[in-house]
Amino acid sequence: MEDRAALAQAYSEVVNGRRSIRGYKPDPVPRSLIVEILELAMRSPSSLNTQPWNFYVVTGEPLARIRAGNTQRNLDRIPHTREFRSMENYDGVHRERQVGVAKQLFGAMGIERDDKPKRKDWVLRGFRQFDAPACIVVTYDRVLVGSDIAPFDCGAVATAIVNAAWSRGLGCVINSQGIMHSAVVRAEAGIADDQTIMICIAIGWPDESFPANAVVSTRKAVEDAATFVGFDD
């Protein structure tokens, strides 16, 4: 029981302590450490054990070219070419949560509402994958396009990656801006034609002096999310 209690405590510390990291030290992340993280994350469950995920781990000059191409296309207002469906405009409570975390981040960074240059720079950081020293592009097999279960499984492994990374002192942020222009990502990362680009995960050593890294986003309460049926208490 003591071992189980210690395991539960360690898991709780990772899950409750993890934050999305948007500012990184320039120090490289060893390939061996990323392999260790992926090995752990790939224990994630998947539908019928299909394990649809693949990973393209990018650093150095290829990542720099992805950042540059992604950013320039955004500045040139070229329509995005993400390969998965996304929600362009949230409404209601979802919009409230989106605005809420933006206010937290802008407040931490000292970005005023009418400061357009700083707000623009913040957006471009996302297109640069927050200047992280490495990035994991999550893909899934193209033969599975049309099924919602493959992206669902990829979401599970992405969550496992960020938690495994945190447990080893690394920070991450799951980021769709970084793969907004898929043609650039596909070319520079050498992504095979039989893969669909799902999402990217910036990964690196957290810069503790970066104000936004201290932001802890709010979570709705269990009673607002869960409906219990058949319980006596």
Describe the protein's architecture and organization:
The protein has 233 residues and is an alpha+beta fold. Helices cover 45% and strands 13% of the residues. It has eight helices and four strands. The chain has helices at residues 2-17, 31-41, 60-75, 92-109, 116-127, 149-167, 182-189, 222-225; strands spanning 53-59, 134-141, 171-175, 195-204. A four-stranded antiparallel sheet has the order 1-2-4-3, with helices on both faces. Helix 2 (31-41) crosses helix 6 (149-167). The radius of gyration is 19 Å and the shape is globular. The relative contact order is 0.23. The mean pLDDT is 93.
- Helix count, DSSP H or I runs of 4 or more residues: 8
Give the N-terminus to C-terminus distance in angstroms.
26 Å
Helix content: 40-55%
* N to C succession of SSEs: HHEHHHEHEHEH
Q: Strands of the biggest beta sheet: in what spatial order? A: 1-2-4-3
**What low-confidence regions span 5 or more consecutive residues with pLDDT below 50?**
none
Q: What is the molecular shape?
A: globular
- Mean model confidence by pLDDT: 93
Portion in strands: 5-15%
What about the largest sheet? 4 strands, antiparallel
* Count of distinct strands: 4
Structural class: alpha+beta
How large is the radius of gyration? 19 Å
Gist of the model:
With 233 residues, the protein is of the alpha+beta class. The protein has 8 helices and 4 strands. The mean pLDDT is 93.
